[in-house]
Amino acid sequence: MGSLAISNKILDKYFGYLKNLDVNSKKKLIKKLTNSLEFKSHKEFDLDSLYGAWVDDRSSDEIISEIRNSRVEKTNFSNF
Known about the structure:
This protein has 80 residues and is mainly α. The chain has a domain at 8-38. 46% of the residues lie in helices and 0% in strands. It is built from three helices and no strands. The protein has helices at residues 8-18, 23-38, 60-69. The two termini are 46 Å apart. The model has no long low-confidence stretch (mean pLDDT 81).
């Protein structure tokens, strides 16, 4: 799940709802928020994990030739 950044105005609105909670509910909420910070780990992207992702029996020259041959040139220009 991605991160969600919210503005101070929205944070103030949430605080307006939460400030009236009882002490035990506030403590539980603080624990949950703290735990969500502690367990978030940013995994470094491993470029080597992409190695070998492309599987094809053709040689690189054949692939390049196929790409070049599939190009379409548009010669019919309309006046603006």
